[in-house]
Amino acid sequence: MSEPARVEDRREEWNGPVPVPTGATVPFWAATLEGILRYQACDCGNRQLYPRAVCTGCGAEDPPFEASEGVGTIYTYTVCHVPGEPGFADRTPYVVGVIELAEGPRLLALIDADPERLEIGASVEVTFWQVSDEAAVPVFVPA
């Protein structure tokens, strides 16, 4: 990633779920506070996100992290009209999508955009909403 992405402080207004960094996820969440999206890139060639203690391709322990460019495309998405979490009631309708990063891994994330203007295959880039002192949630916006 050439430049860190924007990190917006949303701690005062956020009432959704808050990630708790533990184990293999600690380096991932620490990087989010710096505006960096990290994924694991195992020596076997497998790339995975969200972080796990073992590679889902070969079973190697503690696959190393690499920084993503923070860009990708919308693989699929849905518009939520009924909140999946109590803290999302005031956000409806909101968009949740599977983002395919340029490096290959896919992740489920919020897409901060007008649902009427989205389409599968559209380019997106990561931003972060800081929701606690320990984590910022990756949120994607149209590129």
Automatic annotation (TrEMBL):
Superkingdom field: Archaea
Domain ChsH2 C-terminal OB-fold: 67-128
Coiled coil: none
InterPro entries: ChsH2_C (IPR002878), ChsH2_Znr (IPR022002), NA-bd_OB-fold (IPR012340), Thioester_dehydratase-like (IPR052513)
Domain ChsH2 rubredoxin-like zinc ribbon: start-end pairs: 29-62
Identification of the protein by name: DUF35 domain-containing protein
Source organism: Natrinema salaciae
